[in-house]
Amino acid sequence: MGNEVRNAVMSQIERRVEHLLKLEYSRLAEPRGGWANSVDSARAEIGRRWTRTIGRKVRTALPGLYRHAARRAVRSLRDFSEPEAAALPETCPYTLEQLLDDGWYPSSRHGLPSPEVA
């Protein structure tokens, strides 16, 4: 059961990072709402399963989780013909504390409104 819970949390962290990257780097007004909903859904699932032990493992695994999430974000941004796909950072620009914060979203690099404001 422990590995299953840990894997579920890590999967949701990956999903959250992927969609936060798209919210930050995409020029598109849509599908921002869907990405924001996915971020919120992932956060809720993480919150239901979070423990200190899982937190230590996630912190250690974050670089690898980021690489997987960034790869998917790049693919998705390219599908939308977004030039920013190549501009994603090499390492995770978000702290674990930001990823766990219900109300935190990165600022759009293109001046689009944050999901909590929209």
Protein architecture, described:
This protein is mainly α and 118 residues long. It has one domain. Helix content is 64%, strand content 0%. The chain contains 4 helices and no strands. Helix 1 packs antiparallel against helix 2 and helix 1 crosses helix 3. The longest helix is centred in the middle third of the chain and has 28 residues. The radius of gyration is 14 Å and the shape is globular. The termini are far apart.
How would you describe the shape? globular
Secondary-structure-derived class: mainly alpha
SS elements, strand count: 0
Largest sheet: none
Helix content: 55-70%
Rounded mean pLDDT is: 92
Low-confidence stretches: none
Write the layout of secondary structure elements.
Layout: H1 2-25, H2 32-49, H3 52-79, H4 96-100
Helix pairs in contact: 1-2, 1-3
